[in-house]
Design brief:
This is Reverse transcriptase zinc-binding domain-containing protein. The protein starts with a helix and ends with a helix. It has two domains: about 130 residues, no CATH class; about 170 residues, no CATH class. It has a two-stranded antiparallel sheet with strand order 1-2. With about 300 residues, the chain is mainly alpha-helical. Helix content is about 55%, strand content about 0%. It has 17 helices and two strands.
């Protein structure tokens, strides 16, 4: 969608910068039809039956608008209008009568998604996100502001978007292969999906419970792992260290669960939850130790007591 938003920027510039050299050169290769806007939709969309029978579908307003007030609209149709088309024409005329036009003022394009009427990539992207049903509360700060290696951030981004190669995704991509998608290798009970593997699996949720017990917090597992990332838990307080460490521990848990899943599938090795928890503690403490927030704090001290090192 970001690419579409940036493409929209160039389409907007194409419409506004008619005298620019790049516009003229592009126009030699590609035609660009004119659209007469009425309300929130083009008139061709609002009145499709009239649009089908109008002679010139790309005619500019100046060619059909009479020169004097009251303005008259000289629309040419390729055939006699039917009763339903006449009703549409009456509705169109009523809509056009409500427009405030001036023959002395040149036409200008207005961007309805901005109060200034000017195009912005941000406004177009937000509109596209709503149209495609993308979540507006995507945990971007949790993912990209976390103090972990970049490749780990990218992995968590894939998890949040449900793009990791869990069995259900692999089955969709390779429908002709039997991957036993109804079995999670960690619990051997339920189907393996992103939300199940990283949140609802009995092994994984046991690790989450242990984290929240350490932080002395009561919690209810959310519906999805993306929602889990979006919730601003204050398990280690609101200090800079507390925020950095909580993000590191949460991401370390996700990473360790993925490692364990792959180890059981490809290496036939299974570790117990105590071993996994020790791995989470070490990994999260190491990432925190390397961050600016924990500058000067020894690694062994961070590992020993997370609550203490996050207390101002």
């Amino acid at each position: 969608m970001r690419n579409l938003a940036f493409l929209g920027k160039w389409l907007w510039r194409y419409l506004r910068e008619g005298s620019a050299l790049w516009h003229q050169e592009t126009g030699k290769e590609f035609g660009f039809g004119k659209i007469c806007d009425g309300g929130d939709q083009p008139l061709g969309t609002q009145y499709p039956r009239l649009f089908r029978v109008v002679v010139d579908k790309n005619i500019p307003i100046s060619s059909v608008l009479g020169p004097t007030r009251p303005f008259s609209w000289n629309l040419n149709f390729c055939c006699n209008l039917s009763d339903s088309e006449i009703e549409d024409l009456e509705g169109l005329m009523r809509a056009l009568d409500e427009l405030h036009l001036s023959s002395s003022v040149p036409d200008a394009r207005f961007w309805p998604l901005s109060s200034l009427g000017l195009f912005s990539v941000k406004s177009f992207f937000l509109s596209l996100s709503q149209s495609f049903g993308s979540p507006q509360d995507f945990p971007s700060k949790f993912v990209w502001n976390s103090q972990v290696p970049f490749k780990v951030k990218f992995f968590v981004w894939l998890v949040a978007h449900k793009k990791v190669n869990t069995n259900d995704m692999l089955q969709v991509r390779r429908p002709y292969k039997a991957l036993s998608p109804d079995i999670c290798i960690l619990c051997m009970k339920h189907g393996e999906s992103t939300d199940h593997l990283f949140l609802h699996c009995s092994l994984t949720i046991g690790l989450w419970h242990r984290l929240f017990q350490l932080a002395k917090m009561d919690w209810v597992p959310p519906r999805s792992i993306s929602n889990m990332m979006s919730i601003k838990f204050k398990g280690f307080g609101t200090s800079k260290r507390g925020i950095v460490l909580w993000q590191a521990v949460s991401i370390a848990l996700i990473r360790v669960v993925w490692w364990e899943r792959n180890a059981r599938i490809f290496e036939d090795k299974a570790r117990n939850s105590e071993f996994l928890w020790d791995s989470i503690v070490f990994l999260a403490s190491l990432w925190a130790f390397c961050s600016k927030a924990f500058k000067g704090a020894p690694l062994n001290v961070i590992q020993l007591d997370w609550i203490a090192v996050c207390t101002p």
